[in-house]
Specification:
This protein is mostly helical and 504 residues long. It is built from 20 helices and 3 strands. It binds zinc ion. This is Metal-dependent carboxypeptidase.
């Protein structure tokens, strides 16, 4: 007797998707236009909807259905079986932990985030440390429950795998060591070059002009306003309800138009991904569960591959001057581009330029590894943090605000997440390397018609949504595993030019 058919699974997944669309829209509204007094009501509503979708995702109907389909795979299409595998993994992750522990942990992370904010206000790590310690204890307990047979080589591997399936410390150590060594060589080389003068980057550009510039550039790369919009916020993000509604946000400063332009290009890259997922994945988790690394590779493709390319700007410098009423007309293109590309070590990760950014991630990765694989003491984390900034970036945080207290991630229990940011950089460069075999970028940029770039990204990345892992997409698109040399070669070429290093 047939107990379930594929349509039953699709109907249940659609119900979950509809609830999640609601949550996404309400979440977007909370961060863009909601009246401040409404926040308690909104939190109540979001937690209600979150509870409903969680129930459907892990409840008896779903588990029964997944069991049945796993025993009867032949009655499902290929897509149906892929969905069963995907959902089974999710259910396992969420149900291996006893309910009381899960609820207690949720409360703890919410309190920890308040403690983190308070610690920031008082510049006092000690306020936050006890909460961080408890979160780590919970995570260590969860790791044992998630990996009961102790299959992972190290504890931290279990966390890495949740954000980037298949990623391990053994693999990442090799990759990050290559990046560290390569970056040292580049930094060394640049010390013999000419530092650009970046004062022109802080010329005043009215926000209306910045908006027009950023939106013009984003739309030329294919971001569609008929399927999206741009709003103001404090911490920029992209949120997608579905492939026809992928909204981006940004923040503005009249004396820092670069922040807005690169910020909008970045978020529009996330939006492009969402707007171009194949319609066959509508109302399934494959339209929304993309791994963060592959998503980030697309926002970063806009930001660091296109938005930092000399030949791209050679063409768009005219747009910049037209929109800003010739604010930069007295500056030569070369002078402007060198200013645009200035690199210097910063203490704050989110303010880092593309060259130094991965070092911020490597520092966090090494600290997380110390916490989970070597039981490093929470009390001593600020000292470890500072020592690593001194060693890798040559700058010492003068306090914990610009040190260990800068990111909210650990207060939310997000360990194993940071490496995805760096992987996004490396993936973007590897895609670019492959694309150059069939696309003449200089010629495409000079023509002002970027369709060829759009088409490649849609065909090889966006259309798949979350139906493939990042490694599968990378391998299929570029023919090889992750190779950080492409990123290093690209940065070396760009900055050797910008810093006018003479090679004898
Ligand atoms: Zn991003």
């Amino acid at each position: 007797m047939v107990k379930y058919v594929e349509e039953d699974l699709l109907a249940l997944l659609k119900e979950i998707s509809l609830l999640e669309e609601n949550q996404a829209l309400l979440g977007w509204d909370a961060l863009t236009g909601m009246p401040t007094d409404s926040s308690d009501f909104r939190a109540e509503l979001l937690s209600y909807l979150g509870g409903k979708s969680f129930e459907l995702m892990t409840g008896p109907k779903m588990t029964d259905m997944l069991n049945y389909f796993r025993q009867n795979p032949t009655i499902l299409s290929k897509l149906g079986n892929q969905l069963v595998a995907h959902e089974s993994k999710k259910v396992k992750l969420n149900t291996n932990i006893p309910n009381e522990d899960f609820m207690e942990y949720q409360r703890l992370t919410s309190k920890a985030q308040d403690a983190w904010a308070k610690a920031r206000q008082n510049n006092d790590y000690a306020i936050y440390a006890p909460y961080l310690k408890k979160i780590i204890e919970y995570k260590k307990k969860f790791i044992k429950l998630w990996d009961p047979q102790n299959q992972a080589k190290t504890s931290y591997d279990v966390l890495l795998d949740q954000f980037e399936p298949g990623l391990t410390v053994a693999k990442l150590d090799v990759i990050f060591n290559e990046v560290k060594t390569g970056l040292q060589k580049i930094q060394n080389k640049l010390s013999y070059g000419q530092k650009p003068d970046d004062r022109i980057m802080h010329r005043e550009v009215p926000i209306a002009q910045q908006r027009e510039l950023a939106l013009t550039l984003a739309q030329k790369l294919g971001y569609k306003l008929s399927k999206g919009r741009l709003d103001d916020t404090i911490h920029p993000f992209m949120t997608a309800m579905n492939r026809n509604d992928a909204r981006i946000t940004t923040r503005w400063a009249t004396n820092d138009y670069q922040m807005a332009v690169l910020g909008v290009l970045h978020e529009a890259g996330h939006g492009l991904f969402e707007q171009n997922i194949a319609a066959k994945f509508d109302y399934t988790p494959f339209a929304k569960d993309m791994a963060m690394s592959i998503h980030e590779s697309q926002s970063l493709f806009n930001e660091i591959i296109i938005g930092r390319s000399k030949s791209y700007w050679q063409n768009e410098f005219t747009t910049l001057n037209t929109v800003t009423n010739d604010t930069f007309a007295d500056v030569s293109f070369n002078e402007w581009y060198r200013a645009w590309m200035t690199t210097k070590p910063t203490l704050i990760r989110t303010e880092a330029d593309p060259l130094t950014y991965p070092l911020h991630i490597i520092i966090r990765y090494e600290i997380e590894k110390a916490i989970f694989n070597d039981d490093f003491n929470v009390k001593d984390l600020p000292a470890l943090w500072n020592a690593k900034y001194q060693e890798y970036l040559g700058i010492l945080p003068e306090n914990d605000l610009v040190g260990i207290l800068q990111d909210i991630h650990w207060a939310g229990g997000d360990f194993g997440y940071f490496p995805s940011y760096a992987l996004g950089h490396l993936y973007a460069a590897q895609f670019y390397h492959t694309m150059q075999k069939t696309i003449d970028f200089d010629q495409v940029y000079a023509s002002g018609d970027y369709q060829a770039i759009f088409d490649w990204r849609k065909e090889h990345v966006w259309q798949y949504g979350a139906s493939k892992t990042p490694q599968e997409i990378l391998k299929q698109a570029t023919g090889e595993e992750l190779n950080p040399q492409y990123w290093l070669e690209l940065q070396d070429a760009i900055y050797t030019d910008v810093y006018q290093v003479v090679i004898n």
